[in-house]
């Protein structure tokens, strides 16, 4: 029976060791969450490393590995500046080896889920790497300079990258984004995240959420500017009454494609969101009224390794960029402080449906419904100017 006693002792020791390790790790985690390590640079640094390692190991969908090369050109042009976004790591490595990616349904679903969470888990590059927008240039030629354009009008997520070929200011600004008004529907507004609300949203009343803001935008574009507008008020981020965004973009895409099939005349597609930034409220003034600041997100369908995401192809990336940039510049003439920088992200966000597609973030959870509606008045005017070629 000695062998049985040894086995029992070995099992008990393993259990004790595992329990002890769990208690230590749990204690460290709780201490870190309560800021115990913040007063000690050494402990803080070690805690940060443990936290990052844990995120990269346990939650790879929203983590990345950063290469701190410190070289400016790496951000702008070189694929050597890599943040290997999971679960794309296997796909990226296979591309580097020249192998064909395994396009399985399970892997596709992982990527779709990562896309669904990406908007809420932005990881912008440091401010010193991507300076904030300043005054517009006096000469149009300045917009043709890659570095100037990138640094003054764009912010970039850690998950993606862009180069001179794709961010060609002269090409983007020369794109024809005009649209003649017709009797058929030409503008589609929808909300992948219909449950997004504001500081004064009334529970159960969707007219006080982002959907209500969409109602107002559709009304302005229709009554004030004469466009034929469809407002899709469907809910795509609730499953059995519970908030679930894992398949929100897939579900909203189905609705969008149905509208586009029914009305091929639709040229402009707007996915209207509300941004979520902890403790931050973006507000400016438009025509003497407080208005929420706006931001365009452009899905690059490209990772930080400069590799296109084949699961989420977008043949209209350049057109999406051109439309957003022209809208950004037009807004600067109407209300200089209305727009935050255009935000570039790795995924697609259903922007492949039409060349003139926008993912519009209107304010944050701290803005009021009135501020949101005032912002829509400014946005509608800007859209009309770009579509009218002004």
Main β-sheet description: 7 strands, mixed
> Biggest sheet, strands in spatial order?
1-10-9-11-6-2-3
Report the C-alpha radius of gyration, rounded: 24 Å
- Secondary structure class reads alpha/beta
Strand content: 5-15%
The low-confidence parts are: 37-44, 54-103
Mean pLDDT: 79
Question: What layout of secondary structure does this protein have?
Answer:
Elements: H1 2-33, H2 41-58, H3 72-76, H4 89-96, H5 105-118, H6 146-153, E1 154-156, H7 169-174, E2 187-190, H8 210-223, E3 229-231, E4 238-239, E5 242-243, H9 248-262, E6 268-273, E7 283-286, E8 289-292, E9 294-299, H10 317-334, E10 342-345, E11 356-362, H11 369-387
Parallel strand pairs: 1-10, 2-3, 2-6, 6-11, 9-10
Antiparallel strand pairs: 4-5, 7-8, 9-11
Short description:
With 390 residues, this protein is of the alpha/beta class. It has helices spanning 2-33, 41-58, 72-76, 89-96, 105-118, 146-153, 169-174, 210-223, 248-262, 317-334, 369-387, and strands spanning 154-156, 187-190, 229-231, 238-239, 242-243, 268-273, 283-286, 289-292, 294-299, 342-345, 356-362.
């Amino acid at each position: 029976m000695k062998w049985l006693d040894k086995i029992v002792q070995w099992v008990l020791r393993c259990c004790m060791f595992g329990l002890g390790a769990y208690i230590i790790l749990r204690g460290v985690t709780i201490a870190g969450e309560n800021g115990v390590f913040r007063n000690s640079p050494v402990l803080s640094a070690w805690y940060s490393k443990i936290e990052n390692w844990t995120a990269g190991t346990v939650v790879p969908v929203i983590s990345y590995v950063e290469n701190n090369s410190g070289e400016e050109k790496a951000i702008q042009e070189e694929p050597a500046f890599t943040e290997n976004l999971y679960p794309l790591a296997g796909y990226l490595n296979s591309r580097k080896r020249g192998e064909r990616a395994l396009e399985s349904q399970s892997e596709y679903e992982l990527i779709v889920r990562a896309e669904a969470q990406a908007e809420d888990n932005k990881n912008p590059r440091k401010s010193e790497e991507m300076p904030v927008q300043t005054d517009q240039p006096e000469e149009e030629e300045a917009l043709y300079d890659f570095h100037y354009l990138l640094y003054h009008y764009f912010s970039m997520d850690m998950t993606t990258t862009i180069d001179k070929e794709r961010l060609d200011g002269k090409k983007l600004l020369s794109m024809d984004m005009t649209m003649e008004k017709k009797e058929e529907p030409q503008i589609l507004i929808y909300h992948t995240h219909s449950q997004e609300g504001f500081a004064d949203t009334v529970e159960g009343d969707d007219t006080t959420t982002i959907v209500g803001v969409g109602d107002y935008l559709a009304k302005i574009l229709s009554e004030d500017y004469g466009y034929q507008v469809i407002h899709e008020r469907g809910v795509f981020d609730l499953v059995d009454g519970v908030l679930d965004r894992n398949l929100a973009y897939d579900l909203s895409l189905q609705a969008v494609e149905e509208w586009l099939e029914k009305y091929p005349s639709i040229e402009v597609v707007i996915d209207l969101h509300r941004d979520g930034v902890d403790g931050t409220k973006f507000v400016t003034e438009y025509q003497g009224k407080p208005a929420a600041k706006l931001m365009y997100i452009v899905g690059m369908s490209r990772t930080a390794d400069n590799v296109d995401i084949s699961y989420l192809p977008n043949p209209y990336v350049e057109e999406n960029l051109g439309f957003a940039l022209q809208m950004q510049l037009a807004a600067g003439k109407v209300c200089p402080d209305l727009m935050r920088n255009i935000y570039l992200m790795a995924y697609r966000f259903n922007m492949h449906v039409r060349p003139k597609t926008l993912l519009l973030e209107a304010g944050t959870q701290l803005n009021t419904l009135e501020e949101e509606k005032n912002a829509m008045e400014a946005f509608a005017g800007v859209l009309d100017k770009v579509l009218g070629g002004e």
